[in-house]
Design a protein that fits this description.
single chain; alpha+beta; 6-stranded mixed beta sheet; 3-stranded antiparallel beta sheet; 4 helices
């Protein structure tokens, strides 16, 4: 495969972006993907009518989340989000069986941490999460119409 061919392969984040924009089906929204591979945020979604914005961190998980009670996210990412980014921020976990999402809150930085595979993580209980792509779109619309 040549470099020219490789740039047209859609990764999971690009597919997610296309799906969100198509579901919003409204020209007043723009969604920008971070160009920095190591950025703590994957997307900024902008409502051009009122200039409200939403940041989204997208995590592709190769699990059936129905088999688990919690999601893990790196504590260093939590520190970065808390220090450098404005809210609202949605954390989206795209799993094999479903999409789960939660709003990043001020309490995340104070949650207990655990070491997993040599890294500090926090738990996000599934009960804190919304479930389903339609509910995600509904929540996005609520946030961007405040």
């Amino acid at each position: 495969m040549t470099d020219t061919e490789a740039k047209y392969i859609l990764d999971s984040e690009e597919l997610f972006k296309i799906r969100v924009i198509d579901s919003l089906a409204d020209a007043k929204y723009e969604m920008f993907k971070s160009r920095n591979k190591f950025c703590a945020i994957d997307f900024m979604l902008l409502n051009q009518s009122n200039l409200l914005s939403l940041l989204i961190e997208h995590k592709q998980k190769k699990i059936n989340a129905a088999d688990y009670e919690t999601f893990f996210i790196g504590y260093s990412k939590i520190v970065t989000l808390n220090t450098f980014y404005n809210k609202p921020i949605l954390l989206v976990f795209e799993c094999k069986d479903e999409i789960y999402f939660c709003e990043f809150g001020d309490d995340f930085i104070t949650r207990p941490t655990q070491l997993i595979n040599g890294g500090r993580v926090i738990h996000i209980d599934k009960s804190e999460c919304g479930t389903g792509f339609a509910k995600l779109i509904e929540r996005i619309r609520e946030i961007l119409f405040l």
